[in-house]
## 1
Amino acid sequence: MAKCLSFTGSADFLYRSFFSYSGLRSVKTEFPDGTTMHCWVPKSQKLSKPNLLLVHGFGANAMWQYGDLLHHLMPRFNIYVPDLLFFGESKTVRPERTEAFQAQCVMRLMEAHGVHKMSLVGISYGGFVGYSMAAQFPEAVEKVVLCCTGVVLEEKDLREGLFEVANLDEAASILMPQTPEKLRELIRFAFARPLIKGVPSYFLSDYIDVFCTDHVEQKKELIQALIKDRQLSKVPRIQQPTLIIWGEQDRIFPKELGYRLEKHIGDNAKLVMIKNAGHAVNIEKPKEFAKNLKSFLIDSRLSPRSKNPSHRQRHFLIWPTP
């Protein structure tokens, strides 16, 4: 009897109901090349509102990663929350696994929904995809928020010990846990203060069954494509105003990558380092995360590094000092 009850599945149902209650609807879009993209889109698009794309990372699905932000953002934006390929209900028969291809698919999806201008938020892997969208489609992407996104990592960083994992196989085994022990390890990596002690293995196994058993090989290929032959010199510099949010105690993408990313983008970027938070900063510090998002996204008059000192002070008054 107990095995019939999935706490993770029940929570997922509640998130789905909440998204629908918040004014979004679930839509699948099929493309002729064998690609299917799922997305939460507005039930009623308001032309007076700007469009905002929320791109998820690895881990639980997009609803779990952005559910707590909806009530902050829905009044101000037309919200779009897609499933990336091999997550949720999105898939493809195409062989490409790069973030550039993911970005192209998301852009096709947005165009299919009649969206040609947008700002975007990308968490972790979703930030890789969002960054690529900004680089490939600069006329469509207006503002960018990157959260704990190691876009500027290099393959040599893995060999030189920047990360706590030794190789890609070890990274994949943590990011796609198949046992309760590996899920505990992922939680310890993702949170500055992981509340994992005493959690029964049943709950962890249930989470794995719901979120970590589909498209395992394809997701490994996504991780491999991120790092293989990656060099900073090959990463384009995006031109959009960009907010970078990082957890100071991030153990998956160390904070050094946040400083490196800010330097790489240049004057259009601003880094906010949030204390007492790890990789899952959007979950550990949801109020601070939302506050920074709203400050950056809603004040459309200012770029991250306004040359007017009074403007700069007003724009960053609530932001923590890196």
## 2
Amino acid sequence: MLGAIHFGVLAACFVLFVPMAMAGWHLSRHKMLFFSGALFISLAVCVHLTPYFPSVSDIVASVSSVVVYDHRVSCINEVNQIVWDVKPRPNRNGSSSNWDWVKSRKVLSCEFQKLDKFDVSELLNGSWVVVAGDSQARFVALSLLGLVLGSGSEAMGSVKEELFKRHSDYSVVVKEIGMKLDFVWAPYERDLDGLVVSYKKRNKFPDVVIMGSGLWHMLHVNNASDFGFQLKELRSHVESLVPVTTKGGSVTGRSMHMFWIGMPVLINGMLNTEEKKERMSDTVWHEYDRSLGESKILRQMGGPLILLDVQSFTWNCGPQCTLDGMHYDSAVYEAAVHVMLNALLIESHQTL
């Protein structure tokens, strides 16, 4: 932290005063008088040199800024650390699923929180949010709107009806907070890629993009290598949109926050068609999961997108949380939304 000039001044003082002190000790018969003079000179030098050195507060502030940065990065890595408390319902129609972040020291230090309607409205005020993908993305969009509008509100009744029209897009504006949410039916990776490219061509960009795919490709294309290739194409276009931090610390690119919805664990025996059971086997699922990692589209692999780890949520929630082996209880998608919101707080340097 000390500049070269500071070290030069210290070296000069050392060369000047140490020989003088040694000579004075041996030559002076009045050692107390000598020490008094040496102390006076030392204090005078320190007073005059003080302005040239950083203050303790400056040093602490500098160190703190580094610590805060590392803390934010660490919290992004921990935001998916969730535990589940799943209890079967008496009538065996599904389960009651509760979740929370694990109580480890790292996770507790991040102070993750389940946001309420007021918090979410404040965080997303004036934002344009896009959720794109297959049915998993549709459930994420539903959970997010449930937080913004209130899950039991009259408005949510019409939202569910419109949002779940088969294989269609949906758009809504929440006038109270000026938030726009677009759901884009984009079940294939090429659909997501086309969507990203369209933003660049129009030079009009959402504030938050939440996307995910894989299940349709697994069922209808059934080629994990092609899935990985499509993801790499998508990554290259996404990287041209998201902010990039240079070595000098400056940030380039647009201030977009982008997330990836992980594929759920598939319970093969519960899938509702023979075609799904055959083409979406455990072996194929793992091949697709491996291709996702190798594409390096995720932040944890050096890519641009923050993972919403639906895979771990569904694995830990278990078979009791699904009726068809593919779509899970609403609590799973609510957890994904809260993970996204907490990551958004960290990424945008906001507090509530």
